[in-house]
Amino acid sequence: MNYWLHRISHIAELSYPLLDKGFLTIGFSDFTHNKFIDKVLEDDWNYFNGQFREMWGKVPRTRHNLWRFLKFNKGDVVIVPSWGTFFVCEIIDEKPLLISETYSDDLKTWGDKKVTTDGTYLISENGKAYDLGFARKVKILYKNISRAKFADAKLTSRMKIRQTNGSIDDLKKSIEKSIANYIENRPIHLHSIIVEKTANLVLDAIKTELNPDKFEKLVRTYFKTIGANEVTIPAKNERDKEGDADIVAVFENIKLIIYTQAKFQKGKINEWGTNQILDYKTNKESIDDGYNKIAWVITSADTFNDEAEKIATENEIQLIDGLEFSKMLLNAGINLLNTNL
């Protein structure tokens, strides 16, 4: 399977309605006959050039666009740029079609103008032949994908080329990523990209530069940055204490308290911290003070074990691993990290 870029802005008033019907088109109507197609498929370059000399008296560079178009293979993917958008199509025919083979009784141009055929060309209402010579039968996989939202810099740049078509096999990853983003409705967003690319660097710095006390201070700083009115460390000899919380963050305006275990560890964290914060939260919920109370476990570790995940799911405890916490820090603002820990 190959990837191609192909423009259909030539005779746009008809080429786009034809695309909606599953036909990708190109001009060069002077060469509309089956022998021409057959010779190209036989790789007869001399015949191909000779036809241009005979019909046009010259051999233009633009002929390469026609050669490539006729040589598209079944299964190839074609990106079709439009105004601010693009289509993704798949070639489904075995060989190119003459333009007359795209005709149907309901074929109309933009503006609802009727199209007819004389058996060789498609004809406008005023009797003039449209300069479309050949077509490929395609399946439209995706249509009207926003360039701004879903095409990365490489694909966007390539869609600006002036020639009619060209190979874009080197952009396979960009194309597949753009399609995936479109399917998942995940527009390209610079902030998100920076967070994704930077989070691992932040986590690595946390693991190598901090210790348990400094990590706990970082968590407290995070809560203050996102608007906690009060961030405290519960006394270790707290009366009637059950379980344990390293940090208590109070958000007065929304009547919310977050009890947090902060675990500076590596690898996979076990369920001990999850059980501790669950017991602490359960004990505090008996106090009727009008606050909603939730429990978090924040760690520098990579993952939680299955038992911790199970306890958290059953008791609505938020488990935050090292990478996710790094993203939260970045989203809260880079100035947060400019603090003495």
In short:
It comes from Cyclobacterium lianum. With 341 residues, the protein is an alpha/beta fold.
Could you please describe the fold and organization of this structure?
It is a single chain. With 341 residues, the chain is an alpha/beta fold. It folds into two domains: 186 residues, no CATH class; 147 residues, Trna Endonuclease, Chain: A, domain 1. It contains twelve helices and 16 strands. Strands 1, 2, 3, 4, 5, 8 and 9 form a seven-stranded mixed sheet that branches. A hairpin with a 3-residue loop joins strand 3 and strand 4. Helix 8 crosses helix 12 and helix 10 packs parallel to helix 11. The protein is elongated, with a radius of gyration of 32 Å. It starts with a strand and ends in a 9-residue tail after the last helix. 31% of the residues are buried. The mean pLDDT is 91.
| Beta strands, count | 16
Which overall shape is indicated by the principal axes computed on the Cα atoms?
elongated
Q: Rg from C-alpha positions?
A: 32 Å
How far apart, in Å, are the first and last alpha carbons? 54 Å
Series of H and E elements: EHEHHHEEEEEEHHEHHHEEEEHEEHEH
Task: Report on the biggest sheet.
Answer: 7 strands, mixed
> What is the beta-strand fraction?
15-25%
Backbone structural class? alpha/beta
Number of helices: 12
Report low-confidence residues grouped into runs of 5 or more: none
Number of domains: 2
Share in helix: 25-40%
Overall average pLDDT: 91
Name the features.
341 residues; alpha/beta; Trna Endonuclease, Chain: A, domain 1; five-stranded mixed β-sheet; elongated; Restriction endonuclease
